[in-house]
Amino acid sequence: MTNPSLLGPWVRRFLIEHLIGERNLSHNTQASYRDTLALLLPFAAQAVKCPLDRLIIESFSAAIVRRFLGYIENERGCGIATRNQRLAAIHSLARFIAFHNPEYLAWYTEIRAVPFKKTAKPTLAYLEKPEMDALLTLPDRHTKLGCRDYALVLFLYNTGARAQEVADLVIADLTLKGSPSVRIVGKGGKVRHCPLWTSTADALNVLVVNRQAHEPVFLNCRQQPLTRFGIGALIKRLVKQARQETPSLCKKAVSVHTIRHTTAVHLLRAGVDINTIRAWLGHVSLDTTNIYAEIDLEMKAEALAHCEVPAATSTGHWRKNPDLMSFLKAL
């Protein structure tokens, strides 16, 4: 009979039964939890000097978790955000075990007491309109790869899509005639539809003409699907070239997600309401979208100008005002 205190079977149930069967979490989330446990379990086994397959729940203590978090920060060089992400996965595993076996509630309470570290939110970078235009003018549209690069950058700016969403895009997701639009599958399989500019539809049409509906929209030079890493490298290459003509880009770290922030800020400046931008970007919570209203200095300056206090004007001393004195003497 299997020992119910062995950690291995619980981990298997957690990954298969809970994450997939009960929660139906996205593949990326499953991979993140798996990677956390792939680091944690060998570390815990070494810490308690026990074979990995004989590791029990009781030996997996809060002290081990704290040591593991210190290890990934100090030795692996991970940031606080990654540290907190790993801890969230550990909390989730401990909660699953305690839910199905109440005798481990006290153990779960100790694990749950390991706190998240506070981290400062980084300032979101975005591009001004001339900087975005500089990126769009770089690709040589007389070449096949140049047409692809131009269509990719324009699509990112038009839709605010994430790199993985662009990599997963297939031709069947595009509607390029009539009212152009695109179907985007985002995090957790959530689907949203975004309208496309006519210029975006024309640029994409060059790429997909005479191709099958199931094929990826964006291909690399070997006619293989462009990955999110390839998309990121492409943007970095274009930014490096653009910095020669646009010095302001030298002060900014530009990535695919920077263009996503740029789309949001420019929509906000154009007067689009924040809830529409939330749906446009595929955010679950409006709180996530509200950050764009906080970072745009141009809109803050415009709002400040509306409530500017008028300059004070001096009317002089009342004794030196002849009209006032005449009025008082006539009373």
Structural class: mainly alpha
Domain count: the total is 2
The count of DSSP E runs of length 2 or more, i.e. the number of strands, is: 3
Low-confidence stretches: none
Distance between the termini: 110 Å
The CATH class label of the largest domain is: Mainly Alpha
- Tell me about the largest β-sheet: 3 strands, antiparallel
Offer a concise description of the structure.
The chain is mainly alpha-helical.
Tell me what you see in this structure:
By secondary structure, the protein is mainly α. The protein has two domains: 7-112; 129-304, Orthogonal Bundle (hpI Integrase, Chain A), CATH 1.10.443.10. The protein contains 16 helices and three strands. It has helices spanning 7-22, 27-48, 62-74, 80-100, 105-112, 129-137, 144-159, 163-167, 198-208, 228-242, 256-269, 274-281, 286-289, 291-295, 297-306, 322-330; strands at residues 174-175, 181-185, 191-195. A three-stranded antiparallel β-sheet has the order 1-2-3, with helices on one face. Helix 4 (80-100) runs antiparallel to helix 5, helix 7 (144-159) packs across helix 9 (198-208) and helix 7 packs across helix 11 (256-269). The radius of gyration is 29 Å and the shape is extended.
